[in-house]
Amino acid sequence: MSDYNFAYLDEQTKRMIRRAILKGLAIPGYQVPFASREMPMPYGWGTGGVQVSAAVLTPDDTFKVIDQGADDTTNAVSIRRFFQKTAGVAVTEATAEASVIQTRHRIPEQDLRADQILVYQVPIPEPLRFLEPSEVETRKMHALEEYGLMHVKLYEDISQHGDIATAYAYPVKVEGRYVMDPSPIPKFDNPKLEMAGIQLFGAGREQRIYAIPPYTQVVSLDFDDYPFQPTKADHACDLCGAEESYLDELIMDDAGGRMFMCSDTDYCATRRKQGHVGAQGVPYKEDAA
Amino acid sequence: MRPLLQVENIAKFYGARIGCTDVSFDLYPGEVMGIVGESGSGKSTLLNCLAGHLTPDHGAVRFDTRAEGLRDTITMSEPERRMLGRTDWAFVHQHARDGLRMNVSAGGNVGERLMAVNARHYGDIRAEAIDWLGRVEITEDRIDDRPTAFSGGMQQRLQIARNLVTGPRLVFMDEPTGGLDVSVQARLLDLLRGLVREMNLSAIIVTHDLAVVRLLADRLMVMKDGHVIETGLTDQVLDDPQHAYTQLLVSSVLQV
Amino acid sequence: MISVENVTKSFVLHNQGAAEIPVMAGASLQVDPGECVALVGASGAGKSTLMRMIYGNYLTASGRIMVGDVDVASAAPREIIQLRRNTLGYVSQFLRVVPRVSTLDVVAEPLLLTGTGVDAARAQAELLLTRLNIPQRLWQLSPTTFSGGEQQRVNIARGFAFRYPALLLDEPTASLDPANRATVLAMIAEAKARGAAIIGIFHDHAARDEICDRQFDVTTYTPGLAA
Asked: Model ipTM?
C-alpha cells in the first residue's frame, strides 16, 4: 500500500462527492455543484472524472481507463497508474473485466452490465453555454425547462451546413426533463447512453457532477424533418473488419494512404483474438504488439 | 369587452428618487398606447415595470391570460411570467443588441421564439423566418447572416421580426424606431399598424417622437418627473394639449 | 344623429402667461339623419373648432355632444375610437398618412378596420379612386407625393369608403376642378340620401347652397364676436 489515503482523496471529500453523485442520480441530467479539489494534474486532463472515480472506487474494484477509446494513451495510462498507486486497485484493459471505467470522449463498444460504472471526464458541462454566456440565466433556463435555445444551436447547424453538423457533445434530454451535455463523445455513441450501467459525469474545473441512472431514457435532440442520426465513417475496421464500431482515421503517408480502425482498442484486439481480420490487418499473434 | 391589461397605481422608486408613481390605466385588445416624455420622465421605468423587467414597489399589473383571465403579473410566479414573455408578450428594445442574439444567424434569431414554444420542424421554422424577414424588408439571402453583419436599421427590423413571429397579443416597445432610417421607420409604422389591425394586437410604445405616436398610437400618456400629467386620445392630446408641459412639448416639435 | 348641447370651449396658453382664450360658449346644434348642415361664420369664428370638438379632436369644457348614443364630450378614448371607426367619419383639409403606404391601401383602411375583407376593401377603394379621377398608375404610390388636389381627392375617397352614419366635412371641395367638385357634391348627396347626418364647412358658397339643408352660424356663440 502507499502513503496516500485510499484513492488519494480524504474521506470527507469523497463523502462530499458521493453526496453529489447520489443527488445527480436522483435527478438524472441535473448538474450538481460540488467542491472540486485540486488534483495532481492540470485541468482538462480529467480532474473531474478522477475525483468521481476516487469517490466510487472500492478496494475490490477493477479499474479501466480509456481516452478516445484507447487504453494506451498517455492520459489513460497516467490515470490508471494514479489509482494503481493511490488505491492499489486491480487494473485492466478488458471492458468486460472492469467494474469502474473512466473515459474521455467514448463509450466502449461492448454493452456495459448493471454491475459496471462508467465515469466521464467533462470539459464543459453546460449544453446551453454556446448561446447563453450567463450562468445565472442558464441555471434559470434549466430550472424552468426553457430549452428552445438548444434547438437554435441545431437550427444554426442545419442552416450553415445543410445538416446537423454537431458530431460530438450532441445534446440530449434525460428522462424527459433536463437537457444534458453527454461530454464530447461522438454522436455515434449517443444511443448507448441508455444502458444497464451507471453513468457518472465529472467536470473538475466547472465543479459540476451529473449522472444517468441505469435504463434511463436519453433522447438526442433533433427536428422532425432532420432526425438525429448517429454517424460513423462509412468503412469497416481495417484491422479487425468490424462494421458496426466507431472508427479512427489514420493518415498513413503523403500519397493519400489512409487506414480506418476501431477507436475502442480493447474491442478491436478482442475481435482480432477471435480471428477477425480486416482489409489491412494481419492475423493476431499472441506475442505481437 | 374586457381590458387586456389593467394597470393600477404602479410606483417605482430608486431610493428617495421617483422612477414613476401613481400610474393607472386600462389597455383594451387592439389598442395602441403611446407614452411620451423627455429623458428621465419615468417612461422607460414604467415600461419595464409593466413588462416584468423591474418589480414595482406598489401596484398591480393585471394581464388577461388565455387560461385564467386577469392575473397580476407582478405576483405571479417567475416561470409563468417568463412564459408570457415568450408567448403573449413581446418586447422591442431601443438597442437591437439588447434584443438579439448577436452570434446567431438572422433566421435563428427569428426562429428562437418558435422553437421556445416547441416548433420542431426545421423547414416550417425557416419558412416562417423567411416570411417575417420579408415583412421587415430583409431579403431571404440574408437569413443565414449574423446580426453583426447588419446595419443598425436592419438589426432593429430583425428584432421586431423576432418579437412578432409568435403572434403576441401585447407588444412593449421602447423607442422602437429610434435608430432607423426615416424610410424604414415609415415602413415599420405601416407594418405595425397592419398587425394591430389583423391580429388585434395591443401595444405600449415609449417614444419621444410625437410623429410616431400620432401615426401609431390611439391613446397617449404624457409623463414628466415620474408622474402622468396628461392622457387622452392621441390626436386630442397633440392638437388640444391641456397641461403646460404638453403644450411646450407639442410646440417644440420642428415642422417639416 | 348629431346633437350638440350647450357646449363651451376655451384655450389656456400656459406658455404665454396662462392666457385664457374663450372660443365658444353655449353652442347647440342638432343634425338629423339625411340632413346636411353648413357651419358658417367669419374666419376664426370657430367653425373648425366646433367640428373638431364633435370629432373628439378638441376637448369640450362643458355641455354634451351626442353622436349616436355616445357623448363625445365625456367619452373614454376607446369609445371615441370605436365611434370614429364605426359611426363618425371625418374628411379633414389635410391628408395625414403613414409615408410609403399605397394610395389604394390608404383608401381601403377604414373598410379594413370595420371588418371588410382585403379584396372587397381594395375593390371598393378602386371604385372610389376611379370615380374621383385618380389615375390608376398612381394607386400603388403613396399619396404624400401627390398634388394638393389629388391629396384632397384621396382624402375624400378615404372618408367615403366606409358608409358612416355621421360625417364631418372640412372644405371637401376646396382645390378641386369643376368636374371633380361635381363628383364630390354627388357623393355627399348620395350619403345624405342613404341617411347620413352631415356637418360641413364650405368656403365654396355655391356648393354650400347646393348641398346643405341649412346653415349654422357659429359667430353667435363666439365670445367677443357675437353681435
From this structure: 0.88
